[in-house]
Amino acid sequence: MRTTALIVAAGRGHRAGAGLPKQYRAVAGKPLLRHAIDHLAAHPAITDIRVVIHPDDRALYDAAIDGLSLPAPISGGATRQDSARAGLEALEDTPPDLVLVHDAARAFVPPALLDALFAALENPANHGAVPALPVIDSLRRGSGHFTDSVDRENLWRVQTPQAFRYPALLAAHRAAPPGATDELGIALAAGLRVAITPGDARAFKLTEPQDFVSAMSQYIPRAAAGFDVHAFGPGDHVWLCGVRIPHSHGLIGHSDADAGLHALTDALLGTIAAGDIGDHFPPSDPQWKGAASHRFLAHAAELVRARGGVIDFVDLTLICERPKIGPHRAAMQARVATILGLAPDQVSIKATTTETLGFTGRSEGLAAQAMASVRLPA
Ligand code: MG
Known about the structure:
It contains twelve helices and 19 strands. By secondary structure, it is of the alpha/beta class. The chain folds into two domains: 3-207, Alpha-Beta Complex (Spore Coat Polysaccharide Biosynthesis Protein SpsA, Chain A), CATH 3.90.550; 219-377, CATH 3.30.1330.50. Strands 1, 4, 5, 6, 7, 10, 11 and 12 form an eight-stranded mixed beta sheet that branches. A five-stranded mixed beta sheet has the order 16-13-19-17-18. The chain has a two-stranded antiparallel sheet with strand order 2-3. Helix 2 links the parallel strand 4 and strand 5. It is elongated, with a radius of gyration of 26 Å. Magnesium ion binds at residues 228, 230, 253, 259, 262.
């Protein structure tokens, strides 16, 4: 059974603000289109993802799918109907059994919504299935003043993705006159039977600027700390925050002993309760001997993102008498930002001494403490 999710993202709507089509506007650091792709790709029944874009948006699209290996995007047409049709036609060479036509502005699709679509299509009598929510508010007709009531019973607010048997939807599209707003309208005009499945308020369509604020309610904030110490020993440089710093001593450790990156790694792992750096990169494993610690930090960031999380901010305090951190602070900030895929202003690097007290004060070793804040899907 092959199921293709066809995301129609060719619209030009700038109403949401930020000066670019809304499907490329970011929520929690990720474009809406990427949220939509990630939600659909996470479902085991969806085998392929294809995206229809406006040809002018190719650079925005490439940035949005960074790190994914998707087939080339399909060029859309002048209307949404034209774009969906272009997408369906493009699938004809390797036709899927089912196609889910989805709107990129519905960025958050819970798995249960998709499960219900697939369950409905197990019934051979259904050509399609579309998620919908009952109308809660009273409905009244009027212009300037109310005239008559509308019975809200059996009225539905229709969402996407809209799932269909591919050949049936393609034929319906080919036969459809212009002016359809969605696949459901086209399918009904063609006489197809389309089941109503449970929609979900979280699958709302982001349209107005306020919607981008509301979307953050889909995330919960998490913060966690990390701490690390390494002893000074023989050497002529140390690695701190991925920056090589000439020094009268080195730092002793199994890896490159970069206490700054180790503390940051533990902080990030803490935000997803994923243990500590030693669990992921055991010192007993020879492959980590002398390893550059940016790999550890990048791995922790990857784990957060694999959970659908977004890294908001990291903060690090280096505790030592020597070397002086100030001259290297900007380079450290830039390096950590690069490793984590963040902007420099999402990375704070601070330093302090312990007024010559304790092991750091005696320059026997160096300590680092870190804090990371992330947002995870609620
Ligand atoms: Mg360490």
